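User: We ran a pulldown and think these components assemble together. Before we commit to crystallization trials, I'd like a predicted model of the whole complex to look at. Sequences follow.
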Amino acid sequence: MRRFIAGVLSMVIAGGVAACSPGAGAADGDVKLSVWGWRTEDVTVYNKIFEKFEGTHPGIDVEYRAYKNTEYNTILQTGLSGDSGPDLAQLRAYGELQPAIASGGLLALDAAVPRLASFPAATLDGARGRADGKIYGVPFAIQTMHVVYNKKLFADNGVAPPQTWQQMLDGAATLQRKKIIPFAVNVRDDWMIPIEHEIFGATRYGGAAFEKRVLAGEAKFTDPDYVASIETYAGTSKYWQPQFSGVGYEDAKALFVSGKAAMFPGGVWELAGFRKSAPDIELGIFSVPPSPGAVLDKAVTPGFVDGSFGVATRTRSKDEAVELARWMATPEFGQAFSDQLIQISAVPGTAPTDPLLKQAFDAYTANPSPYLMYADFSYGTPPGAEVLRTNVSAVLLGTGNATDAAKELQRSVDTWFKPRG
Amino acid sequence: MVSTAPRIGRAVGVQVLLWAYAGVAFGPLLLVLLGSLRGNREIMREPLGLPTSPTFENFGRAWANASLSTYLLNSVVITVAAVTLCTVISLMAAYPLARWRFTGRALLAAYFLSGLMLPIKLGVLPIFYMFQSMGLVDSRIGLTLLYAAGGIPFSVFILMAFLRGLPTDIEEAARIDGVGELRLFRSIVTPLSRPAIATVAVFQLAPTWNDFFFPLILLRSSEKYTIPVGLSRFFGEFSTDRGALYAGLVLAVLPLVVVFVMASRQVVAGLTAGIGR
Amino acid sequence: MAFRSGRRLGWVAFFCGPAAVLYTVFVVVPLATALWYSFYGWQGTTRGAPAGMANYAAVLGDYPYQEQVLKAFWHNVVFFAGTMLVQNTVGLGLAVLLHRNPRGKRMFQTLYSLPYLISPLVVGYLWSMMLSPAFGPVNAGLQAVGLDGLTRPWLGDPAIALPVVVLVNAWQWIGCPMLIFGAALAAVPAEMEEAAVIDGASAWKAFWQVRFPLIMPAVGAVTLLTFVGCFNVFDLVFALGGSSGGPGQSMDVLGLLFYRIAFQGGVNAIGLSSALAMVMFVVVFGVALVVDRSLRRREVPW
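Assistant: Here's a predicted model for the assembly, 1000 residues in total across the polymer chains.
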């Protein structure tokens, strides 16, 4: 007992001393910038990219530090309002960015980072404060959504990337006859439902054209075209894996990489993981052609801004942090980001070198479509994506219908959304 | 001896039932163990299956890449310190609450026990700001104190129940002999409570060891991380490497299983003497 | 106890002081602060103007929170009832079997308790693989024995997802009631039940009429712990069904709803989530008090 108390006391004293000693790095005169993010899988690559910046900016050390995806929001919240927080932080986009701005934890970068003016307005929307219209981060990536397919399974069964909706269904039917699952779809972890809905349904409801009208208050989610887009998406479910409602995200990916399924509707962010776990599968992507009755007459590629890098108000090295933010708006960073992380950089003047990403990026540039629930309807509580996925999953399970799902979405959005104009 | 045959039959039946449930309880764990011996590609293709060519490579990769040794050490230090501190002060508190009569006793007991119903996670933001004002962010001491505090209600609950059941005569005799309160507690009450102490310690061990929420929020430097946080980072970096992931899980839970198996006799005795009464 | 009360209070302070201080500082104060938060409007992490009961009104009265709270609350009730029915009954059954057949008792107790040592997040991950219609051995096993008709999308079937989660939860926690009931059974003098059997009662009847009433204190403790556990459940459901509680929110519980509001609840997330946390606490605390009282009255002294 006495020994224990002595032990605890000595620990407390040791801890106290440790807490009072100055932080590492301060001694050698270097400024240390800590950049927080949620990409635990990319830590090494990010730090390698930042070495370029360190090379041209002697005296500044940059460290990218990643926290678990699911807890990142909490950690960032505490970090931005505390003393032990980051100098720069990777920020979520659109509505999910607003709480951090409202807390006053981020610097507005409009004036500090002049290059932001060269970014397209739609890209900047991902980093814009709703209340004041200012830009709080340098957007880093664009994510696009497609159907990813297994080239060998397609070729072996005489299926080609479809030009029309009917070709897509015929191809799916052919695969199904040969005991190959046409689409591996994640329903159980229902966060992917709004994404899948965009992939299959965007042409049906009208993509960007509908976005414009719904934001102006001229259209509603209860309009027949939007309701039909939910039905269109749900209608593809007969080509999904058996008992699809019980299959989660990891399972759906495993079905695809194990060659049991030929297609996976999802974002370009899946490509790196697919390549890593199944290097022998040759991947292809296509954008879904317009469905019967579609408002649009050609395939569109839904996409969105993944997030941005912002500067913390409480940083102790504001000048250096802003300098890093400026660098992150240059093509030098954008191209390195694109080449080394295999992602689509949001910086203008950069292009992906990876052929698949290039295809994705070109398709998106030619015929973009918004991720409505994130880009426009993530600003209220509960966010639109949450309402949509809950109600659409009922449609998929056969316990609800598209009309009611759209009605619920509209009802929830009405509690906070004010049309422009 | 008419009843021998059915009796044997019944005994066999009972054994079958017991083994069957043992399969249910242990089967899924076995799958993780087997998974840790399989190649990653094999797992991705057939997530559940037998290892065709068992390999320990996963363990090597998990150990080398995840700095598991650092995390393991942090976890051991924090868990042992928190559980010890919690058990000692809970035993001290439970002793008068269970065995003395004084004004406010019932109220004080209820104050401690009400914590059983308070999920401490709900207070994460206040805890963070408090830690910040006390300089406890990114400190293993802070985390230790938090875990110790969080375990108090449950420990006091179990220890009180146990202490109530102890006979009072030794204590009375000692007191008449003029033995001081402190010595009484140290040399009579504490040794007598050993089984209950084991119970409380083991039941605190698992949640403390497994928690990854508070270290994520309250620790900043990776050299201070505990096993679950370390693992969760490792899962992020190696999310496509299932084999290594399983190996990491096995390594993380192994110390706990060893302690549990070693302590199980004491735990059962503690429960028997405690709640059983 | 013959020493003066003044001196004794000093000793009470000495013994209870450290625990009281630590518990107050690190548990009570943060939760009281959370209560205080719930009466303000919030701008992210910046506290805004006092909001009175507005946050409570929003969480309990406004669309769509009201519906979600009620639905989640109902799922918690089902969770509790199911856990009592499955986990605690099977736990009692195993305890009785082990009590009557002491051979290998400690080994079985250890085996049954092992799942308790694994973090709920990992348990969730493990079981979602077990139950996966794509690769899981559960459906594969059913097919292998010709019971194809019984295969299900388990966690994706809104009618059975919640019961399945109850079963997984029971799998993890069963060691707890089993050990507690086992301990209680061991403490009951065997002669009492034997006497009843000799008096002509069947073993089954003797158990329920003689032994069961004597282990009521243990039943009370287990019920209370189960109740508190079931109303605070989060990790496992999160791992099995994601933050919205699976397709159709068929396993949404209050803990998940709190998580969604706290981390995806927009600018006033702190105000709203603190209010919900307080409502949860009042419910759990209130019901726990009632459960505790009513069980205490049924205890049989011996």
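Chain B has a mean pLDDT of 81. That may be worth checking against your pulldown data before setting up trials.

User: Thanks, that helps.
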